[in-house]
């Protein structure tokens, strides 16, 4: 019953109250030595993705050429400035989310969408593998109409590829980005060589290639 409760999205009235104080995080990225919080370098853009446990997924994105900085946090729910324990309770409504700050001249948003789709199984609803709960749901939080359109197109194209390979229906939520609440400092770049050199997060990707993300001059 506890597991079933954690896979049901709560309402705002059911959410924990949270707090007004923002989480304190390091000033610089452990690996990229870039700002963890705004302001970010001029000309960069923000993409935000939820695709399961944010430890391994953040590492996936910080290794992409053209990504300037990354951070992990909580988004898509109701509780302001939640703790990790509160998110794990299923009573905040948030998903574990990776913020990706990128240089669009070096890597396009569609390139990042391709990485997103191929790095997890978007058909599993409120889970990724053995990680079960609303915090592990698949979501794309968009910052403008162009991102929303690109995300929806990529979903349709990847669904076609998954269907041909015998997989089920994508459950990924596409929604305008809300408040991104930073996770605790120890979660930031959790799998870096300085923090957890032998750390490991399983790859839940389907193995199906996403037919989007080929870099073009128009992004």
Topology:
Blueprint lengths: L1 H5 L38 E7 L2 H9 L4 E9 L8 H5 L6 E8 L6 H10 L8 E2 L2 E2 L5 E5 L2 H20 L8 E4 L4 E2 L37
Parallel strand pairs: 6-7
Antiparallel strand pairs: 1-3, 1-6, 2-3, 2-8, 4-5
Helix pairs in contact: 4-5
Explain what you see.
The protein is α+β, with helices and mostly antiparallel strands. The chain contains five helices and eight strands. Helix 5 links the parallel strand 6 and strand 7. The chain starts with a helix and ends in a 37-residue tail after the last strand.
- Proportion of beta-strand residues: 15-25%
Tell me about the biggest sheet?
Answer: 6 strands, mixed
User: What is the helix tally?
Assistant: 5
| Mean pLDDT reading | 94
Question: What structural class do you assign from the helix and strand content?
Answer: alpha+beta
Distance between the termini: 46 Å
Secondary-structure element string = HEHEHEHEEEHEE
Helix content: 10-25%
Radius of gyration: 17 Å
Shape: globular
- Strand tally, please? 8
| Spatial ordering of strands, largest sheet | 7-6-1-3-2-8
Given as residue ranges, the uncertain stretches (5+ residues, pLDDT < 50) are 214-219
């Amino acid at each position: 019953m506890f597991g079933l409760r954690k896979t049901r999205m709560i309402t705002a009235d059911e959410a924990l109250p949270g707090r007004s104080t923002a989480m304190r995080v390091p000033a610089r990225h452990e690996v990229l030595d870039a700002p963890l919080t705004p302001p970010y370098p001029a000309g960069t853009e923000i993409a935000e993705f939820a695709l399961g446990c944010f430890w391994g997924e953040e590492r996936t994105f910080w290794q992409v050429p053209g990504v300037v900085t990354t951070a992990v946090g909580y988004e898509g729910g109701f509780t302001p400035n939640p703790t990790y324990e509160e998110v794990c309770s299923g009573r905040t409504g948030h998903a574990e989310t990776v913020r990706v700050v990128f240089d669009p001249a070096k890597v396009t948003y569609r390139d990042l969408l391709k990485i997103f789709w191929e790095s997890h199984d978007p058909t599993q609803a409120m889970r990724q593998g053995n990680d079960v709960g609303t915090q592990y749901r698949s979501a794309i939080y968009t910052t403008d109409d162009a991102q929303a359109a690109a995300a929806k197109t990529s979903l349709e194209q990847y669904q076609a590829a998954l269907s041909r390979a015998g997989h089920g229906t994508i459950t990924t939520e596409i929604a305008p980005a809300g408040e991104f609440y930073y996770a605790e400092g120890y979660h930031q770049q959790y799998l870096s060589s300085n923090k957890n050199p032998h750390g490991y997060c399983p790859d839940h990707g389907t193995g199906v290639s996403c037919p989007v993300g080929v870099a073009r001059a128009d992004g």
